[in-house]
Design a protein that fits this description.
alpha+beta, 2 domains, 9 strands
Amino acid sequence: MRPLTRINPALPVTSMQTYSVAQPLVSHFRPATCKEVDCEQQRLGWMTLVDERIGRGKAQAHYIRRQSERHFREEQLEGGMTAFVFEAGQECFKQHQMPLEREPFFFKTQGDWRRYLGRPRPMRGQDWLDDFATHQLNLKEKLGG
């Protein structure tokens, strides 16, 4: 992962405001089936490679063979690897999520990435949008735009 590159702000942290939007998984998403998300693995089938020479690989292979209740064929590969090839039309192993139709959470916080000055203040969506737009216009006017 590349490190973040940030431009050093010309203003002090006390002059900054941060606007953020959040949609936490726990409150804004629900578990979903492969069919609901049009999962490519379910439509076409898939292959899972497992290294049975290591503990985690042994556990994965055991789960697939004894507990997964999925249809597959096994291919032993060189170096202790096992390929499990799964037929199309069955649930994959991913934990899919579907968004719920809920309004995101909107916040405004004094400060920026250098230091936040106080707690994020929750706002209604329209108020957040109006405040953000007004803030942008004020910046544009101050910068001579």
